[in-house]
């Protein structure tokens, strides 16, 4: 797959609107509809485009309280990490879980209704996992830039 300025434009436009029609996308990137479709299909076939997502309104869903949590494990074994990951995978409030470098092992993005729900999650979910040694919360006040799809 060749990556050139047109491919970059295609990816940028699809990142903005994954439901854009092929003809509109072709117009925006300066290709014929057939050439544009071939490029998009190749990006999909090669796995550059792994899927399309919907952007949800967290306020409408009742989950507008967002926090990032740095999680330090008490045991640095592979077994402990895998058990922690399995436990977190079952929790719908955890929207992202990243294994990171630094002073902690994981960074979580959590979405819940409000501070009361967050306290319950912090205490009743994370506080009960035997692998967890430390938790540091970062409550999101505002997101002036958020390009997650």
Please explain how this structure is put together.
There is one protein chain. With 149 residues, the protein is α+β, with helices and mostly antiparallel strands. It folds into two domains: 5-45, Arc Repressor Mutant, subunit A, CATH 1.10.10; 58-139, Lrp/AsnC effector binding domain/regulation of amino acid metabolism (RAM) domain (Alpha-Beta Plaits), CATH 3.30.70.920. 40% of the residues lie in helices and 20% in strands. It is built from six helices and four strands; from the N terminus they run ααααβαββαβ. The chain has helices at residues 5-16, 22-29, 33-45, 58-61, 78-89, 115-124; strands at residues 65-73, 94-99, 106-112, 132-139. It has a four-stranded antiparallel β-sheet with strand order 2-3-1-4. A hairpin with a 6-residue loop joins strand 2 and strand 3 (106-112). Helix 1 packs across helix 2 (22-29) and helix 2 packs across helix 3. The longest helix is centred in the N-terminal third of the chain and has 13 residues, at 33-45. The two termini are 23 Å apart.
Task: Please provide a brief summary of the model.
With 149 residues, this protein is an alpha+beta fold.
**CATH topology call of the largest domain:** Alpha-Beta Plaits
Helicity range: 25-40%
Low-confidence stretches: none
CATH top level of the largest domain is Alpha Beta
Spatial shape: elongated
The number of strands is: 4
Look at the structure and name the CATH superfamily of the largest domain.
Answer: Lrp/AsnC effector binding domain/regulation of amino acid metabolism (RAM) domain
H-E order: HHHHEHEEHE
